[in-house]
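Section 3.1: Structural characterization of target chains.
Under the original work plan, the team committed to producing a structural model for every single-chain target entering the pipeline before any wet-lab resources were allocated. The record below documents one such target. The sequence was received from the expression subgroup and is listed exactly as submitted; it comprises 219 residues.
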Amino acid sequence: MTRILSTKKLSKALKNKLSDAKIELVEKNFIQTKSIDFEIPQLNDYLIFTSKEAVKSVLKSDIKNVHSISCLCVGSKTRSFLEKKEFTVIESADYAEELIQIIESKYKTNSFTFFCGNIRRNTIPAFFQQNKIAYNEIVVYETKLKPHQIKETFDGVLFYSPSGVNSFLEKNTLENKTCFCIGTTTAKALENKTKNIVIASQPTVENVINEVIHYYKRL
């Protein structure tokens, strides 16, 4: 029986999906996120979110009128969560690289407030700086690595972020295991570590699971 390791715990529905496909699951949370206190910022023309964690943290804060400002975001899950929480989302993209292209073509004269975590990529801030676009960056949550040494043997590993990759590699090796990644940014963190990488067609956890099932069905 195929056995895989997920570097984050999965929903019951996704576990059932794997079980139905006769794939055994080992799961551990290799990273931990938590909201942190932050100074209430001066809000600009638009808000930017790249994760649900940032949205949750902002909602816990005392920022007034935050719902009155339109948002741009990265990820379909971030978008649906923002809309569920009654934010207005005017633009979204699967990756930060795609979002900055939208900003460049339509919003270059506007200003932005970027809510992010303590471990974040430089794509959006670097773009703002290079193009002299006014912005402020507010760190609203913290990501901590939680490395685990995995004693079981398994065929594939599921990764959802570069932080998850780094945490896993602190105490484990990949050898010839197949790595399933939520997107290209996560896959990039595995460069020079392995050639056995499968990237989900859309950057969602559900699509990672679909890729796993499809991959092992063909073998």
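The chain has a mean pLDDT of 96.
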